[in-house]
Amino acid sequence: MIEYYEQLMQEEQEAVTEVIQLLYRQTFLLERKFDKRAGRLSFVKEYRTCSKHLEFLKEYFKVAGVTLYENAHMGLIYIQGENLWGEKLPRLATIYLLVLKLIYDEQMAEVSSSSHIVTTMGAVNGKAGDFRVLKGLPSPTEMRKTISLLKKYQIIEPLDVLEELNEHTRLIIYPCINAVLMGDDIRELLNTFNEEENIGDESAIQGHLEDMPE
Fold first, then answer.
1. Is residue 121 within 8 Å of 168, Cβ to Cβ?
2. pTM assigned to the model
3. Cβ of 181: how many Cβ atoms within 10 Å?
4. Are 189 and 205 in contact (CB under 8 A)?
5. Scanning 5, 105, 168, 193, which has its CA 20 to 30 A from the CA of 185?
6. Which top-rank group of organisms is this from (predicted)?
7. Tens place of pLDDT for every residue, the chain, 214 residues?
């Protein structure tokens, strides 16, 4: 494994090191992310580096008890492991995460040619309202804070200015959401928020998310 790395040119070694640090820091690598200046999805160079050296990187992370996965169809590379810990999500962020996954799955079933889905804040709050998991519409400040948090985890990418956030604000839902909530029954989890004894209680859902790495 070390021999493979040492045979690389210095520039390539630095690129591989950067990818390792990036995966530990943000968990996911997307093949394409939205470039606001270009106004379109653009390829991510770190993803290409990771894909090129995938077998070496799998062995590297394996030593640390971490598994490296690639989903070429979704354009996603990510790590998972029991020793990777993330922060607890606030109630609204957890609700939005589940709703976004539901919207993502519904739209993917209709348009399977793309791994990226676009929705709006109005659709997200409307879907949450359908499940009666919000007492009322969150304040603009609370919504902006929550959207910023989910953007940090590369779950979504706002296409419009957050300072002007409203029901028409567009959001790209990245395929990272599949790695966070893979295999969960989203509707059932959302229904737990509709039970009176769980109002204001995050514990009903966070057991499913506590292994979400930072």
1. yes
2. 0.80
3. 22
4. yes
5. 168
6. Bacteria
7. 789 999 999 999 999 999 999 999 888 999 999 998 888 999 999 999 999 999 999 999 999 999 999 999 889 999 988 666 556 788 899 999 999 999 999 998 887 667 789 999 999 999 999 888 888 899 999 999 999 999 988 999 999 998 999 999 999 999 989 888 755 567 777 777 765 444 444 433 333 344 443 3
AA letter at 153: Y
Determine the Cα–Cα distance for residues 84 and 24; give it in Å rounded to an integer. 9
Whether residue 213 contacts residue 79, with contact meaning beta carbons closer than 8 Å, is answered with yes
Tokens (6 digits) for 16: 């591989």
Structure tokens at 204: 């009903």
* Residue whose C-alpha is closest to residue 173's, from 122, 76, 101, 71: 101
Q: The tokens 């609700």 sit on which residue?
A: 95
On whether the CB atoms of residues 80 and 179 are closer than 8 A, the answer is yes
- The dihedrals phi and psi of 115, each to the nearest 5 degrees, come to -95, -5
Which whole-number Å values give the CA distances from 23 to 58, 194, 207, in the listed order?
12, 35, 23
The domains located in the chain, with CATH, are: 2-80 (no CATH), 91-206 (1.10.10)
